[in-house]
Design goal:
Largest sheet: none
Radius of gyration: 21 Å
Oligomer: single chain
CATH topology: Na+/H+ antiporter like fold
Strand content: under 5%
Number of domains: 1
Number of strands: 0
CATH architecture: Up-down Bundle
Length: 427
């Protein structure tokens, strides 16, 4: 089969499998991302290894050398998908809301970043992995929270508008921002290999500061840029220019600022979120991103992970999962208690922050692609995301009182900023 037809067939399988798996996951009370990651594992080397089928093997055509592998092409598309996913995450970061949620949400988020970071680094040390930079990076993977599954469960419990529910939502947004900042710092210093001198450290810091300063300064002109793009009189002119800016921010972040490309797209999203064109950009970019590119990203996680390799690393995986659960719950809960919540309220906040999701997978994928972590750590991280996603709903139902009123889907739109289905895929 010609190379282009191989790719089209593979994309058809990926998109269909991802959406069907996402729909099935929703039916059993899990977020769509859970089903998409799980079906990726099934399609990957863990179970079926579809890319190993003769149908998808590269071959010479008319004397020409074989083209790139299907996995390489899928990963390339997944990189575009993850850049857009982080741009949307930036668009959904409400800076005003972050200022309003108060000290409890801020300190809970901080505890939910610091404790897992330290816990992940200690696990890596216990299993003989180097602290710098693999151990620190493992800790960074554990910091991100995915609030979508917690939000859905809290809606069923009529608790999304409670004090604890509002704190969970606010803290999840804040710890994503803190996690992105942490990722930027870790990636920048991880590239300074060998004996790091003071001048090397200074250069890394200066490059980061210059990039962020220039990026934020240029963000002042985003409204004017969007207005100009909207007046071009061409089909989807606004979206096209916004995508170009997001991609350029990503390139500049990695090539010039020494930070991850996804940090650049996230920052571009935050800066566009404060323009009058936010709603129109949101409306245009979601179909493009969630129809194909994000499913390709989540399936690529499963295609890259190999659960069969966990046999000799099973205890590392068990330890990673345990640390991910305990450090997030304790870190968020303890800091919530110290900020004025009572014991029961603090436990609820800690439990609501356990679930990991997209950002953790993005960080893990970046580490694998850039040689910071190995295949075994990456596969263990995928398992960690799946298990933390599964256990959060039952734990929330245990810690929160039984619902006293009817289920209201409209709360999702009001609180998260989208319809229920879209909310499951966001954050």
């Amino acid at each position: 089969m010609p190379h282009n037809l191989q790719l089209l067939l593979l994309l058809a399988i990926i998109v269909a499998a991802a959406k069907l798996a996402g729909a099935l996951a929703n039916r059993i009370g899990q977020p769509s991302v859970f089903g998409e990651i799980l079906v990726g594992l099934i399609l990957g080397p863990t179970v079926l290894n579809v890319l190993g089928f003769p149908l998808f093997q590269p071959h010479e055509v008319a004397g020409h050398a074989a083209g790139p592998t299907m996995l390489g092409l899928v990963k390339a598309l997944a990189e575009v998908g993850v850049v857009l996913l982080m741009f949307i995450a930036g668009m959904e970061t409400n800076l005003d809301e972050m200022r309003r949620v108060g000290k409890v949400a801020f300190w809970s988020a901080t505890g939910g970043v610091v404790f897992p970071l330290i816990g992940g680094a200690l696990v890596s040390q216990a299993f003989g992995l180097p602290l710098f930079w693999e151990g620190i990076f493992i800790g960074t993977i554990l910091t991100a929270t995915s609030v979508s599954i917690s939000a859905q469960t809290l809606i069923e419990l009529n608790a999304l508008r409670s004090k604890e529910g509002s704190t969970i939502l606010g803290a999840a947004v804040i710890d994503d921002v803190q996690g992105i900042i942490l990722l930027s710092i870790v990636v920048a210093f991880a590239r300074a290999t060998g004996d790091v001198q003071f001048t090397d450290v200074a250069l890394v810091v200066v490059k980061m500061l210059v990039y962020f300063g220039a990026a934020i300064f240029l963000g002042r002109y985003f409204t004017a840029i969007a207005r100009w793009a909207d007046g071009l009189g061409v089909s989807q002119g606004l979206l096209a220019v916004v995508l170009a800016v997001a991609f350029l921010y990503s390139v500049a972040a990695e090539a010039g600022g020494g930070v991850a490309a996804i940090t650049g797209s996230y920052l571009a999203g935050v800066l566009f979120s404060v323009t009058p064109y936010k709603e129109r950009i949101d409306h245009a970019i979601h179909p493009l991103t969630y129809s194909m590119l994000v499913p390709v990203f989540f399936i690529s996680i499963g295609l890259s992970a190999n659960g069969r390799e966990l046999g000799e690393h099973v205890w590392f995986t068990v330890a990673l999962v345990a640390v991910a659960i305990v450090t997030k719950a304790v870190g968020c809960g303890v800091l919530a208690r110290a900020s004025g919540f009572n014991g029961q309220e603090s436990v609820r906040v800690g439990v609501g922050m356990i679930s990991r999701g997209e950002v953790g997978l993005i960080v893990a994928g970046y580490g694998l692609a850039n040689g910071i972590i190995g295949q075994d750590v990456f596969s263990a991280s995928v398992v960690m995301v799946l298990i933390t996603t599964m256990i959060t709903p039952p734990l929330l139902r245990v810690t929160f009182p039984k619902p006293a009123g009817p289920h209201v889907d409209a709360i999702v739109e009001e609180t998260i900023g989208g319809p229920p289905e879209e909310a499951r895929n966001s954050h």
